[in-house]
Design goal:
Radius of gyration of chain A: 23 Å
Shape of chain A: globular
Number of strands of chain B: 2
Number of strands of chain A: 0
Strand order of the largest sheet of chain B: 1-2
Number of helices of chain B: 13
Helix content of chain B: over 70%
Oligomer: heterodimer
Distance between the termini of chain B: 33 Å
CATH superfamily of the largest domain in chain B: MetI-like
Distance between the termini of chain A: 41 Å
CATH superfamily of the largest domain in chain A: MetI-like
Largest sheet of chain A: none
Helix content of chain A: over 70%
Number of domains of chain B: 2
Order of helices and strands of chain A: HHHHHHHHHHHHHH
Radius of gyration of chain B: 24 Å
CATH class of the largest domain in chain A: Mainly Alpha
Chain lengths: ~270, ~290
């Protein structure tokens, strides 16, 4: 009885694993075969790269890709600097109103920028940042999640280290840079991977704030590309999809362990 | 503490604080103001409750709210149960569990928009894969996205597929912190697997379940990317969700004021979720 249950459990585990991987496997299948094979399976279907060529020519992928990379890195760079400074102040400095400030920061965990698209659009229109990288990036740069995560890590750094550095004559900024940042490396890695995968995949806000190829990221480009009205066939859509997820997917497969551990770490805190 | 250190603290905090205020707190306040003083895209001199009055009369909104809560009420528990099962499998003694873990986790790293494009093909009525499979067993198939009775459930299926692996990670982390002595003790007592799960594993996973629950509920209300590809809220709003409805009002119907009233409603729902987290549930969760 127990043996049977075990077998069923294992079979179910693999069945679900199969379903979870299937859409990606299907997309690869459709992308590397001529379009008449998108809807029926044949072991002897001829291989082709034409779908990738077609997709590449139908949408300005290189431009989208550059935009996505630029936006993702701009956000990450901003987050790392701003969150480090704020996290240190909240973790290690006594000042009036600290707990109130921390509460204000934490509010953003609940009220994420996506929800405030209407007003944030108005704000950015007011300072002429619609359809720019900065427009996409600014609302995300002060990440409550990043501040929270780094604050928790900084709190575990022994204060003796900081005092020693101060006696050596280090300024406040160099204490942060030379003592806290190196000791928080795993947290930075975890936060960076989470942030990159979030912003690489982000859609709603970039959709609202970008209008042209000049700043449009891959996700928004894909939503136009994949729209049924544009009459693209499935094989080409699959190829386009793979182009758009390719870099992130490869990054994920290479750094799989770090990815998984990063998400875990980010969750435990 | 010298005053200069106070100033230093504020200087460190200032850049992040300015952006937070500009893009979180200020827009919240302005949203509330606009919901009272706004009319269409313009501002009025006097406060009025017109936007809220309309909110109460709006039948589409009732449909949208019903959809949103149903969507959360089904996707969240199903994702959580699946996530726990996945974590137990991957944490167990299965062969090739690394492959399995990758399979479960992969949907998480793919953009919702891109995977929605693939699922759109599965769901398409004429040539779609699901209907082809149904045709093999002699069924005439469904209009997965075009039938108002099914379209919301089709969205849910994809959401569960996208999210379960993400939540699995948190359970996996939690499972690895459970003291193995507890399991040894249970083995000595001859407890069966179900008892072990119910008496040891599940209670110890409770804090994780709370964390995942709150995040999953949040996601259910803030993640609407797939609607843009799959259904656009249709047919006839049968699969419309609150945030998508806000987007439509603001950027398709250009009724910014009404969109603001809707945003206030969404904010209230989120506040209620926050209270739920800090109030009722937290008291029941041990080992925090």
């Amino acid at each position: 009885m127990s043996r049977l249950l075990h077998t069923i459990s294992v079979a179910l585990a693999w069945f679900i694993g199969f379903i979870w991987l299937f859409p990606l496997v299907y997309a690869i299948w459709a992308a590397i075969h001529p379009s008449e094979y998108a809807t029926h399976f044949s072991l002897f279907a001829p291989l082709t790269l034409d779908n990738f060529k077609e997709a590449w020519n139908q949408a300005p992928f290189p431009r989208y890709m550059i935009n996505t990379v630029a936006i993702t890195l701009l956000i990450l760079a901003g987050q790392l600097v701003l969150c480090t400074l704020a996290a240190y102040a909240l973790a290690r400095m006594e000042f009036k109103g600290r707990s109130l400030m921390f509460a204000l920061v934490l509010m953003q965990l609940m009220v994420v920028p996506e929800i405030l698209i209407v007003e944030n659009y108005q704000t950015l229109a007011g300072i002429n940042l619609i359809d720019t990288y900065w427009g996409v990036a600014l609302p995300y740069m002060a990440s409550a999640f990043g501040i929270f995560l780094l604050r928790q890590t900084f709190k575990t750094v022994p204060e003796d280290l900081e005092n020693a550095a101060r006696i050596e004559g280090c300024s406040l900024l160099s204490i942060i840079w030379k003592v806290y940042v190196p000791l928080a490396k795993p947290t930075y890695l975890a936060f960076s991977l989470v942030s990159i995968s979030y912003h690489w995949n982000n859609f709603l806000w970039p959709l609202v704030v970008t209008n042209t190829e000049k700043s449009r990221p891959l996700t928004v480009g894909m939503s136009i590309f994949g729209a049924p009205e544009s009459g693209v066939d499935w094989s080409i859509i699959s190829a386009g999809t793979l182009i758009s997820v390719g870099p992130l997917l490869i990054l994920f497969l290479i750094f799989q362990r770090q990815f998984v551990q990063s998400f875990m770490q980010a969750g435990i805190k | 503490m010298q005053p200069s250190r106070q100033i230093q603290a504020w200087l460190l905090l200032l850049p992040a604080l300015c952006l937070l205020v500009a893009f979180t707190h200020y827009p919240v306040i302005k949203t509330i103001a606009r919901s009272f003083f706004g009319f269409g895209v313009r501002w009025q001199d006097a406060a009025s409750l017109d936007n809220y009055r309309y909110l109460l009369e709006d039948e589409v909104l009732m449909q949208v709210l019903y959809n949103s809560f149903l969507y959360a009420a089904i996707t969240v528990p199903v994702s959580i149960v699946l996530a726990i099962a996945m974590a137990l499998w991957v944490n167990g003694k299965l062969q090739f569990k690394g492959v399995l873990r990758t399979a479960y986790f992969t949907p998480t790293v793919l953009p919702m928009i891109s995977v929605a494009n693939i699922w759109l093909f599965f769901y398409s009525p004429e040539i779609g894969l699901l209907n082809k499979i149904l045709a093999w067993v002699g069924h005439s198939g469904y209009n997965w996205l075009g039938d108002p009775a099914i379209s919301l459930y089709s969205l849910m299926a994809m959401t569960i597929w996208k999210e379960a692996g993400f939540f699995m990670i948190f359970y996996l982390a939690a499972l690895q912190t459970i003291d193995t002595n507890l399991y040894h003790a249970a083995a000595i007592e001859n407890a069966n697997k179900w008892t072990i799960f119910r008496r040891i594993t599940f209670p110890l996973l409770m804090p994780t379940t709370l964390f995942v629950l709150v995040n999953a509920l949040l996601n259910a209300f803030k993640l609407v990317d797939h609607l843009f590809i799959l259904t656009k809220g249709g047919p006839n709003n049968a699969s419309n969700l609150l945030l998508y409805y806000i987007f439509e009002n603001a950027f398709s119907f250009f009724d910014t004021a009404y969109a603001s009233a809707l945003t206030v409603l969404l904010l209230l729902i989120l506040v209620a979720l926050a209270l739920l987290q800090f109030g009722i549930i937290e008291k029941r969760v041990h080992y925090r």
